[in-house]
Design brief:
Length: 517
């Protein structure tokens, strides 16, 4: 059993966050209590004595010209903030996504700049430890001032209102807290603002997407290797010298992964089969140059997301050393939105490579002798069957949808909230689109793997494959037998996608240790 993640002591990474989302244990370093006491004292003095402090003794956003006086009204203001933001709509985030959002918010608050009580941070961590997570609607955030409306559901769950997940079941928050043996928590002045005014939703989703995109790269290299093998392609397209001649780190790494699955040396021998020709099509030969872009984007994105996960992201911030109140815009999700917009474009481009590879396998003019549409029906019934023809169409449809979603969400900034929020990043939208592009892209990759298994059977079976690909063939065939006469494949495809996402086919890279290039 791994050690619990320690908020306030350990640096949260996308890999750590994914582990917590899956149920990993957490705790708080007690040494972070000291700065919490200092910053909370500043808040309480401002409430009692002034001068005004935004969102504590003033209204919110463009309404900051209005003031409230006294501790009672300041607490009412804090409560009303999460009440009037209870207008989220649409589908809800999953329990795992809810845990990730909660963990991201805790890590950002643990930086100690927010002026909340340390006991409030402990109450949030208690939710994680009891496996209570908020039910959060997806729609309602423009990304500045952070993810206000979705994060209001975190405060509501803490307060025993709206709905929560408890051990995967959905129920009223009050019941979830009672079932977990937790008391309802009453937020004090500024605490709703501190809990809501940040990028935790978009950053959590982006981090989970990062881990999936990282795993997708390894699976993609295996797919390229398998396609190369079954079309009798040239392993020397992945010669290390080619990539050291123009050493983009992502391309170097991808080519090395392909060689590993092909079980060839750094300098593979040139193909001698007369059917191979001098060069393979771009979707095979240039795959390292396409997916290398994604690999390199992941390297830079890891640094951005790690900063965001551990940075104080609300407004105002309070310096524990001087007591100064700092009004600014750390809640702005521009960096996270940029990561999501960049990754979704790179993932979709890589997915299109898989779709093009599938097409190679189904057309004899490019596959070097594989049967049309990979039909393996008995000879007398061959032309009454169409094999993978509809699978090719399905892959095309999914690819088109993924590519359509690559338009940057940041391009749709809207001036809102009385023109106070007059430039916004749309980070949560970008993060949801990244999730959707990954859903589609993983399915496209699985379709190509299924076609590779069928092509392998068309070549007489897996004996000609190198050991890593033979093992992958066996894993695919455990969920989907060879297609002889035409049959529905929707069940096979769903089973394969589920198995891929469960990690049955590939080892998952440790994103918490992602290299910085």
């Amino acid at each position: 059993m791994s050690n619990p993640f320690r908020f306030g002591a350990d640096r949260l990474t996308p890999g750590h966050l994914a582990n917590i989302a899956a149920g990993g244990a957490t705790e708080i370093d007690p040494q972070v209590a000291a700065p919490f006491a200092a910053t909370r004292g500043v808040v309480e003095r401002r409430v009692a004595e002034g001068p005004p402090i935004y969102g504590v003794t003033t209204g919110f956003g463009a309404s900051c010209i209005h003031t409230v006086e006294g501790e009672a009204l300041a607490q009412t203001l804090s409560r009303n903030l999460f009440q009037y933001h209870g207008c989220g709509l649409g589908a809800v985030y999953s329990p795992e996504e809810g845990r990730a959002i909660l963990a991201a918010r805790v890590a950002q608050l643990a930086a100690g700049w927010s002026g909340i009580r340390f006991s409030t941070l402990e109450a949030l961590v208690a939710l994680l430890e009891a496996d209570v997570s908020p039910v959060i609607p997806e729609l309602g955030s423009v990304g500045a001032s952070g993810d206000l409306t979705p994060l209001s559901y975190v405060v509501a769950t803490l307060s025993g209102e709206r709905e929560a997940y408890y051990r995967g079941g959905r129920m009223p928050s009050e019941r979830a807290l009672a079932s977990a043996g937790l008391a309802r928590w009453s937020v004090a002045a500024k605490e709703s603002l501190s809990l809501m005014n940040g990028t935790s939703v978009m950053t959590a989703l982006a981090s989970l997407g990062f881990v999936r995109a990282d795993a997708f790269c390894e699976a993609h290299a295996a797919t390229t290797a398998w396609v190369s093998a079954v079309i009798l392609g040239r392993a020397d397209h992945f010669d290390e010298r080619l990539f050291l001649a123009k050493p983009h780190p992502g391309s170097v790494r991808y080519a090395a992964d392909v060689r590993r699955y092909l079980a060839v040396a750094a300098r593979p021998a040139a193909a001698v089969d007369e059917r191979s020709g001098v060069q393979d099509p771009y979707s095979v030969r240039c795959a390292p140059h396409v997916v290398g872009v994604l690999r390199d984007a992941l390297a830079s994105s890891h640094d951005v997301l790690t900063i965001e996960l551990n940075g104080a992201g609300d407004n105002p911030l309070i310096c524990s050393e001087t007591g100064d109140v700092l009004h600014g815009g750390n809640f702005y999700g521009g960096h996270v939105g940029y990561v999501c917009d960049t990754l979704k474009m790179a993932v979709a481009s890589a997915a299109e490579v898989c779709e093009r590879q599938l097409v190679l396998l189904t057309h004899p003019s490019r596959s070097r002798g594989l049967p049309e549409n990979l039909v393996l029906a008995p000879e007398g019934e061959r032309w009454a069957n169409h094999g993978f023809k509809a699978v090719e169409i399905l892959a095309s449809a999914l690819t088109a949808e993924a590519l359509k979603m690559t338009m940057p969400a940041a391009s749709f900034s809207r001036s809102t909230e009385g023109h106070n929020q007059d430039k916004v990043p749309m980070g949560a939208l970008a993060a949801r689109e990244l999730r959707r592009v990954l859903d589609l892209s993983e399915t496209i990759l699985v379709l190509t793997l299924l076609a590779c298994a069928q092509a392998t059977d068309a070549r007489g079976g897996p004996e000609f494959l190198p050991p890593p690909l033979r093992e992958l063939y066996t894993r695919i065939r455990a969920h989907s037998p060879t297609v002889g006469e035409d049959r529905p494949l929707d069940g096979d495809i769903s089973a394969l996608v589920n198995a891929y996402r469960a990690g049955e086919f590939f080892s998952r890279p440790m994103s918490s240790d992602y290299p910085s290039f």
